[in-house]
């Protein structure tokens, strides 16, 4: 088996952590990116290593271009040539209507969720694309069901940022399809992760789950399964598309 090296941005908790664990169990060497929570990242790395996997933690803020460049260099040096990127890092802020937003909040959301996704994809393509001397690879961008639903009265800015990620996914996929790189997106629905607390409502999943046809929230591991499928050879003819992990919404 060829060596598989994965970088997961925002990987210390939630969907990112679940993806890291599953990827390591399937033979990937995993780089887990984090911004502030070093303890969570270190605990995850220790857990993966205890199970026989290979993993490192890399601190970087994806909203800062120089951080992203340094992060990719660290992965090159410690794990080798990147074959998989999971653009998972994303933020939201407290629930608010559009008429309550300011430009500073929008700048923060888009810097991480959109610009960070682009710059990470740029660095990955420079390593994976046959145009740049690479031997191929796969990128999975984490979007959200909010991109389709709009998240009114809660997170229209977050939803709009994920709509941008969807468009970027389609365009980049077509751009690099002939260069050995596949690019797809996963749109989670309401998933039990800590991101809801940063929006001011830790119990949001339980409040809205009855609007989901399956009448429950999703688990991070269920999203990770979809991500790993898109990264795998089982999805070898799949690019520029999306898997909605939403319980039917």
Automatic annotation (TrEMBL):
Query: Is the keyword Calcium in the record?
Result: no
Keywords assigned by UniProt, alphabetized? Oxidoreductase
Q: What is the name of the protein in this document? A: Sugar dehydrogenase
Q: Which family does it belong to?
A: Belongs to the short-chain dehydrogenases/reductases (SDR) family.
What is the originating organism of this protein?
Answer: Noviherbaspirillum denitrificans
User: Which PROSITE patterns has this protein been placed in?
Assistant: ADH_SHORT (PS00061)
Give an example GO molecular function.
oxidoreductase activity
Database matches in Pfam families: adh_short_C2 (PF13561)
The UniProt record lists the keyword Nuclease: no
NCBIfam families associated with the record: PRK06123.1
The organism's lineage? Bacteria, Pseudomonadati, Pseudomonadota, Betaproteobacteria, Burkholderiales
């Amino acid at each position: 088996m060829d060596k598989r090296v994965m970088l997961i941005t925002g990987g210390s908790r939630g969907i990112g952590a679940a993806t890291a664990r599953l990827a390591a169990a399937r033979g990937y060497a995993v780089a887990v990116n984090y911004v502030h929570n070093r303890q969570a990242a270190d605990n995850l790395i220790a857990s993966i290593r205890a199970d026989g996997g290979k993993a490192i933690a890399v601190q970087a803020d994806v909203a800062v271009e120089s951080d992203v460049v340094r992060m990719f260099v660290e992965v090159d040096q410690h794990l080798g040539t990147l074959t998989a990127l999971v653009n998972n890092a994303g933020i939201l802020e407290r629930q608010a209507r559009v008429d309550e937003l300011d430009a500073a909040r929008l700048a923060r959301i888009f810097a991480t969720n959109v610009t960070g996704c682009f710059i990470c994809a740029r660095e990955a393509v420079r390593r994976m694309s046959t145009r740049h001397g690479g031997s191929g690879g796969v990128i999975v961008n984490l979007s959200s069901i909010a991109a389709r639903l709009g998240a009114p009265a809660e997170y229209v800015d977050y939803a709009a940022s994920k709509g941008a990620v969807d468009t970027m996914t389609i365009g980049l996929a077509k751009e690099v399809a002939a260069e050995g790189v596949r690019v797809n997106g996963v749109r989670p629905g309401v998933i039990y992760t800590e991101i809801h607390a940063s929006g001011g409502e830790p119990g949001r999943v339980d409040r809205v789950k009855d609007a989901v046809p399956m009448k429950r929230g999703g688990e991070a591991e269920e999203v990770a399964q979809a991500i790993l499928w898109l990264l795998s050879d089982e999805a070898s003819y799949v690019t520029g598309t999306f898997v909605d992990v939403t319980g039917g919404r």
